[in-house]
């Protein structure tokens, strides 16, 4: 087995590590801990956070890439060869990956969605619905569901029991809405085990034009969506914070320059800038096909470029906000006091300004997340988004354009992409709502 | 005289907490009734209850409020709306935010008249102008078309009074109407209110925290403390025979004796400011050309001796805070010198200045913005010690040092790990003082350190400052607008007006025998508590 680190994998894992570090430092400050405690006191925030974590888990599972060793016994000498790049998620769903049908089939169908012309044994051509290759007779769906539900319940029960025991041993009496948390967790796990176990017998969300499993596609798309949402902010954040704070604090020509930059940038239509960036990058990649060993690496780099371009075009709003807030904070007396102590500018920024900007940064990051997930869908639909070979909700919706025009209509691709995206964006929005309510000082009265 | 307003046994609570506890009082026709108390004592809440404008979360438990013997609580909202404005009118503390900035002041008064009196357009205009005349607004016809930002604070408050009077109310509720104003303007507004009250036979419910204003204005006084009226009396008996201990302490804190001050000539001079000028350029146009200067500080000269206090007195905009910042080298000095121990700080560069940063410190006006809300008290105090290398430099020893400092400013040592939001205004101000003291300064610039505090807290802080001065011979430059506290803290006083010092000298000399016309005006304007003889 050989671990493969794609560019976006590196960034995701770096982000996860820095998030954990941040959480660790934050957990030492009782004040911040109390704030987050208030965030999670709302049951909606708790449920949303669990859903978001679930999505993140899938994205992370799909971000562990490796090549499996396939040993071949040629002339006694064992040569080690590697197969294609797969991820943990691929291995979980390898049956869906391999079992591609011929063409469209509806969710839980046993036969294809369209009639095909077949020659029967009497030499007569007939039009009929062909049975699917990898689906059984389709009987006892209820029995299988009950079994799957039971398995799900057992998993949920064990995990929740462990958590309750752990809480009991620590003697924690918290007012967090654990019941909502358990309920959300239970519903998610049971639904997922049901889908997963039945996916061995059916195409639970149907298949697409070339017979690919839609459930698998939707799950693979999670990584694309989540990555664009998170990593773009990662790129945008340092630019926005550094430029915003220095514009607000230093003033003078620094301020003028930065203001000029973001006014110019934000007056160019965003889509135009992104399209131009993506297309020129596309040309560059086409001219240098030797850069990439596999199509996966190629589409990964395209995703990375898209993320960078989105980041470069979206920092202006936050920068403007931070500049204004820095201007305000730098006039407050505790900053004057620090100056009177002869504290250096960098220390003032680090100790007095950034901590007082944190709520704005956090709120805008969470708010931007859902916007960016939706932006990916729109851009891929227009054709300037991620690589067409990459699984993404935008690409799924793009393909569904033609499927919706068919008679009878093929609805499940669009439906799956819509549901998966809707749940993610809704959870992110609800969560950001709560964060904003708790962290924004203007809401305290 | 008949009873205008009667509040009987009013109980107000939010959730389980009682906010007002059986409040009862009566206001007679043509009487000024003063409700006195510190912040949070429930005075404004009482006035809102009278207007029936309490927020939804606050509920009235029991009691009744009657206007002309008719209960206000049984009225439907539509009737109550007529009573507001027409029978009871209100003036607020902050004239800046009570006026709509995009409407001319004339229109704003006219609007109220139109709603309540239903007059025709010309008649409305005439009425507005006559109202403006009544509140002594100059050029009333011209002012009709002015916008709020074109008026000064005092003028805005006059417009607010005109709005309140527009519908000829029977009762005027004045909620700290002069707190945001300068002393001289305050005096004018108070005289105006008194005159209007006499002319119209109005009743006024006057809410304030200032005992001296009460003495000047009120016929009857009620003292509120923690949601209760602890004492209620006619003015004369109130000031001659206060009953409740809280009232006594309030009066004692407000009463300041002027002692004879002396200055030892042999004490060495710590700070010498000579011909200090700070001019801010006014920039206009595309290229930010400098078209003129605001002379914030214009040729100011004074000196402070070691272990003594100079009070810098002036109204807002007189340039007193700018002087403090110039001494700290936080803003560039246009001309002149600031000599500290005979070294001119104006010439020094950032690095050389660092030595003097230690010796000159500052305490701010607003205790809420002076402390970084994201740092705990220990770190706030530690910051200067680390930056300037003062005191012990290991964390454990620093903690010990900070604990002794906290005790010194009469706080508890274990406050070290707490955050600013857990403290009251007075406590925060003490933390601010501890922060300044941490670097063992020789001069502390106190920029209105007590103006955001309640009367009793104000006295405690002033006493603390005085005590610290005795212990460590630190000098203060005490910047204030409040003449009444000058004798408590200062040895010398300098009076500022429009960037210039118009009079300076020993406190006892200046306070008793002011030479300059402006100083005389200031002293006259300041509301005074009656001495026992002349009530």
Give an overview in words:
The complex is a heterodimer of chains A (445) and B (535). Chain A is mainly α and 445 residues long. Chain A has a domain of 223 residues: MetI-like fold (Orthogonal Bundle), CATH 1.10.3720. Chain A is 69% helix and 9% strand. Chain A is built from 16 helices and five strands. In chain A, strands 1-2-3 form a three-stranded antiparallel sheet. In chain A, strand 2 and strand 3 form a beta hairpin. In chain A, helix 8 packs parallel to helix 11, helix 13 packs across helix 14 and helix 14 packs antiparallel against helix 16. The mean pLDDT of chain A is 84. Helices cover 38% and strands 27% of the residues of chain B. In chain B, helix 16 packs parallel to helix 17. The model of chain B has no long low-confidence stretch (mean pLDDT 85). Chain B has two domains: 222 residues, P-loop containing nucleotide triphosphate hydrolases (Rossmann fold); 212 residues, 3-Layer(aba) Sandwich (Rossmann fold), CATH 3.40.50. In chain B, the strands form four sheets. Chain B has a six-stranded mixed sheet, sandwiched between helices. Chain B has a six-stranded mixed sheet with strand order 16-17-18-13-19-20, with helices on both faces. In chain B, 43% of the residues are buried. By secondary structure, chain B is of the alpha/beta class. Chain B has 20 helices and 20 strands. In chain B, strand 7, helix 8 and strand 8 form a beta-alpha-beta unit. The chains are: A mainly alpha (445), B alpha/beta (535). At the A-B interface, helix 13 and helix 14 of A face helix 13, strand 16 and helix 14 of B.
* Major β-sheet strand ordering of chain A: 1-2-3
CATH superfamily of the domain at 221-443 in chain A: MetI-like
Classified by CATH, the class of the domain at 221-443 in chain A is Mainly Alpha
Taken together, the total number of domains of chain B comes to: 2
Please give the share of residues in helix of chain A. 55-70%
Q: What's the helix-strand series of chain A?
A: EHHHEEHHEEHHHHHHHHHHH
